[in-house]
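Reminder: ligand-aware prediction takes two inputs, not one.
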Amino acid sequence: MNAPELTPVQIAWLQEIGIDRRMLAHYVAQGEFGDPGEPGARPGAAAAVQARAASGAAERSVPAAAAVAATAVGDPAAAVGARRPGVPPAADAPARVPPARPAPAPAPAIQAPPAVTEAAADWDGLREQVLECRNCALHGARGRAVFGSGDTQSPQLMVVGEAPGGADDRAGLPFQGKAGVLLQAMLAAAGLDGETAFYTNLVKCRPLGNRPPTPEEVQACMPYLRRQIALAKPRHVLALGGWAAQALLGMEGELDTLRGAVHAIRTETGEEASVVVTYHPAALLLRPQHKADAWRDLSLLRSLVAASGD
Ligand code: URA
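Here is what comes back for the chain with uracil:
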């Protein structure tokens, strides 16, 4: 029997009710439907991505941008592998190869990313540089840059989101809105200590309209995140959503291909931190059917924390 052909509207509807891409893969060519987690989780974000793709601007996906940033600035926080608990690092890393995608269109010229200056060698200097940053267009519409908050001294956990929202922009603090409330509830339910984590984002200024950050914005802001990771020296990093995960790990791949494994990154100063990827809480507010998967991700993180004696 031939597989039925699905229209884009049918595909979107099936995704809304929780039929994921793996189940749809028999019927739909790769790339025909949007990311069920991020950035499609944000109202209008999937449309924005599609619009950018249509205009030729978004063929450079975030992972491509991350790769550019990695080579351009020497990516000290480059991913050093992916593994499952109890499996030696090298054993199954190749199994995480993301599905093939159409070749990206050549990216327009991107300015060299600004270096984090010498003055940002400590938390105060870095904070000052971020709060005054004008390295991308986002500074023009921000209320405040959102540097990050929480435990800065070797926290057990660093949580990396995508970008500040409206409430965060007003408060100058991350995760102030509904997504933050859900995040705290999820961490607590999984037995993770949200009180002592450090919270920050891939980009420090709010993109207007809740759109995902562009590759240029991510590239401009990555040096700050790298320096934050180097200064904080977290033992574990939780990446929220595909955009944060791809940029942090310097890996291509849909959210689902990055979840379910323990990745590792090396900081600018050589320490290793494990990275677990899960859905962005804003995605879970829109698609609660993914909460069970998020629970599994956080349980994986909890097992790492327990194994490291924290
Ligand atoms: N608030 C944040 O600080 N980050 C997100 O990713 C979402 C909301």
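Strands lie at 79-83, 149-150, 157-161, 198-201, 236-240, 262-266, 272-278. The pocket of uracil is lined by residues 161-165, 168, 174-175, 177, 179-180, 201, 240, 282 (CB under 6 Å). We will return to this case in the review session.
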